[in-house]
Amino acid sequence: MPTLDDAVTVADVARAANRLRGVVHRTPVHTSRSLNAQVDADVFLKCENLQRIGAFKIRGGYNALSQLSPEQQAGGVIAYSSGNHAQAVALSGQLLGIDTTILMPENAPTVKLEATRGYGAEVITYDPEQTVREEYGAQLAEERGLTLVPPYDHPHVIAGQGTVGWELLQQVPDLDMLLVCCGGGGMLSGCGIAAAALQPDCTVVGVEPEAGDDATRSFHTGTLHSVQNPDTIADGARTPSLGEYTFPLVRRYADDMVTVPDSVIIDAMRFLWTRTKLVTEPTGALALAALFNGAVPGNGRRIGVTLSGGNVDIARAAELIA
Fold first, then answer.
1. pTM confidence score
2. Which of 13, 69, 189, 191 could cysteine-pair with 165, CB 3.0–4.6 Å?
3. HEC-encoded secondary structure of the chain
4. For 285-302, how does the pLDDT look when each residue is reduced to its tens digit (9 = 90+)?
């Protein structure tokens, strides 16, 4: 009998990759000898900070919107996001001719708010201390007759995000480990599925900020945990919990979960900016941070690392790096 951990398969990821061909960038893999020396590993950085809209989220957003029925597309969609899924849905809607409405927290980075509006979406802001975005999104979807496209807990979104790992594992053979940043677990689920098929000996590890450790606790206990509005600079990982789909998928396809403090995320971001010239947002440096503080030891291994995005508030980032 099918279960939720069967809801997305490698065939779904492969079909998503075909669907996204010519729409998203096949992002490069970057290496750095100084980075390798610092963390005692051969590190391969999958540069989704160089992706369209500046983050991997365009993969899942477009894959989901492109499979809506004609009636759903005509009626428009709604999404909620701190920024990158917002931009992904807005641009996907623009490319497909679908009206988009996006709920964003008032404290979302200005660069993300402006970019989402720039792609033609109607942006509605809310106070994250007073409003549960999932409830508000469901309410507006019903009132306006819109189709809700969640940021991670949807099979088509998960399959699209899995194309990050699908590409990387074909670009770099014989990885010992793949480190994936984790908010709601969409990319971690999809990359785990890809790894199980393409490089089954590759260990897949999800990385969360310490303040938002819900997925790590959920993974290790087998019980779904949540955290509301975690106080972390990694705004893309301020999700309340893993989802109905991503919880069982992460439990099945990830081998481990670890957390890192914000101070180490800043160290990783500073290194990327100054030594590799790769501009990432804090969440984009999350997976690499696990190598910086030894949460995951390098031990001379070949390690793939997702740099999930580069949509950063420059003024705020300069303060952090300084």
1. 0.96
2. 191
3. CCCHHHCCCHHHHHHHHHHHECCECCCCEECCHHHHHHHCCEEEEEEHHHCHHHECHHHHHHHHHCCCCHHHHHHCEEEECCCHHHHHHHHHHHHHCCCEEEEEECCCCHHHHHHHHHCCCEEEEECCCCCCHHHHHHHHHHHHCCEECCCCCCHHHHHHHCHHHHHHHHHCCCCCEEEEECCCCHHHHHHHHHHHHHCCCCEEEEEEEHHHCHHHHHHHHCCCCCCCCCCCCCHHHCCCCCCCCHHHHHHHHCCEEEEECHHHHHHHHHHHHHHHCCCCCCHHHHHHHHHHCCCCCCCCCEEEEEECECCCCHHHHHHHHC
4. 999 999 999 999 999 999
